[in-house]
Specification:
This protein is α+β, with helices and mostly antiparallel strands and 101 residues long. Helices cover 32% and strands 22% of the residues. The chain is built from three helices and five strands, in the order E-E-H-H-E-E-E-H. Strand 1 (7-13) and strand 2 form a beta hairpin. Bound molecules: zinc ion.
Length: 101
């Protein structure tokens, strides 16, 4: 896994304020913030707002492995997948999904 590196998160709670923590993911960030605040995580978790910190993150395209700036696919692979999806959608079989037009 390339995503298991600790990241900076900003956790905000209406009563406790804002904490900047290092964690592996958003859930872990709320745990860390609760510890900082001396609060019970279970009681504050649902009221927490978590946003990513400032650090530039490294992401890799899950199709070609190229380094990209956001999670998921690089622009090229996204275009390819989009095209593939469209072609699959245009295969003349009955489409039972609602709201496809
Ligand atoms: Zn790619």
């Amino acid at each position: 896994m390339r995503e298991d590196k600790p990241l900076r998160f900003v956790v905000t709670h209406p009563d406790y304020g804002t904490a900047e923590v290092t964690a592996l993911d958003k859930a872990a960030a709320t745990v860390e913030a609760a510890r900082l605040w001396g609060a019970v995580w279970r009681e504050i978790a649902c009221e927490c707002t978590v946003s990513r910190g400032q650090r530039v993150l490294e992401h890799y395209c899950r199709r070609c492995g190229r380094r990209i700036r956001a999670q998921g696919l690089c622009p090229e692979c996204r275009a390819v997948e989009e095209l593939a999806r469209r072609m699959a959608g245009s295969i003349p079989t009955r489409d039972r999904r609602a709201g496809m037009r």
